[in-house]
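Lab meeting minutes (informal)
Scribe: AK
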Amino acid sequence: MIALKQTNSPHPEEGIPTTALREISVLKTIQHENVVALLDVVNEEGKLFLIFELGDLDLKKHMEGHPEGLPLSEIKRFTYELLSGVDACHATRLLHRDLKPQNLLLCNGTLKVGDFGLVRAFSVPMRVYTHEVVTLWYRAPEILLGSKHYTTSVDTWSVGAILAEMATSKPLFPGDSQIGELFQIFQVLGTPTEATWPGVSKLPDFKQTFPSFQPSGFDHLLPKIGADGVDLLKKLLAYDPAERISASRALQHPFFADM
C-alpha cells in the first residue's frame, strides 16, 4: 500500500511546477525515520505522480479522537519525533515553513513530517523570504509582523504550537486573521516590547497602538505536561527568534529524560 500525490500543472506547456520539483529534491535529500519517504516519481502524459509511503492518518485526525488531549506518553513521543524530523530538515539547511498537524503523518504509530511544498533552502546570511507562509495558527510572530528575514526558529515556533495543541486537542492560537492571530499570541504571552523582544518595534507591521495584554501563561497545561513540558513550551514559543530553542537543543530537554 502506497500513497499517490498527483501534481497537475496549471500551465502544462511550462513543464513541472517548481513546488513539485522542490518537494522532490528535498525528499531525495532527506532520508530520516521521522520524514515521510518518497519511494518513486512517475511522469505520465504530463501528469506527475509522487509515490510515498502510506500514513495511517495525520496527527490532526488522531487528535480528533482524543477531545481531552493526548496521553502524556504520546505527547512526549510525538513531540520528540517531530523535533527529530525538523532537526533533520535544519541539518540539511532546509526550512519546512508549513508545520501543522495536518502535515504530520502517523505511519505505524511513528510521526513523520510531510508536505514539503513550501520548503526552502537557507544559507548564511539568511536571504529574504516571503512572509505569506505557515498556516495562520502555527505562524511565528516575526512572520506575522512582516519580517522578511527569518530562520529555522519559525519551524520551532510551530512545534511549540503543535505541542500545546496535543495536550488539549484545541489550537493554542486560533486566530481568524493576521491581526487576530497576533492578538491571540499577545493574550497568552503578553504584548511584546523592546524589553521582551529587542528590535520588535522596528518590524514593518508592528504598531505602537497595539493593545497592551498581560500574559496569561501556560498554567492550564501544567497538570497535563508538567513543569518540564511547560518549560520546553516557553522555550519553543520565545518571542525573540534569537532566543528560541533550536530543534537539536530541544531534543536534549529534561521533558524527554525518561524516554
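Next up, CB showed the second protein from the same session:
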Amino acid sequence: MSPTIFTIGYEGADPERFAAALDHAGVAVLADVRAVALSRKRGFSKNALRANLLAGGMAYEHFVALGTPKAGREAARAGDAAGLRAVYETQLATPEAQDAFADLETLARQRPICLMCFERDPALCHRRMLAERLEGLGFRTVDLTVP
C-alpha cells in the first residue's frame, strides 16, 4: 500500500476546526509549506499554529524553501494556475528547495504528514505541485477540507 500525503488549506477555517480535520485524518506532522508563516487569520501564524498543534499531540515543521515566491502568490490570488506553476517550478529547481523536498519526502515516509498553505482549493496552490512530485515517488494524495 502506498504511503499517503494529505494536503490542506486554511482559507475560511478556524484553528479548532482545522486541527480537528487533521486529527480526524490521522496526521502526525503538519508540514507548513508557506514561504512566510505569518497570517492575518488568528491562530495561523507559525508560533500560534505550532502551539495549538503541539497541545493536541501533533508536530509542526516549517519548510520555508518549499514556499512560493511573491510572484507565485500573486498568480495564485489572480487564479492564474499556469503562472503559479511556472514560478513554482523555478523555485523547486533551487538547491535549497531540492534539499527541503528531500527532507519532506523522508519525513513523509516516517509519519503521516499534511502539506499546508492558505488556499482552500488545492488546484490553485503550490502544495498540489509538491503532492504531484511525491505521487511520482509512490505516494497517494488526499486533499482535506475544513468543514
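CB comment: The domain at 4-143 is CATH 3.40.1010 (Cobalt-precorrin-4 Transmethylase; domain 1).
No objections, moving on.
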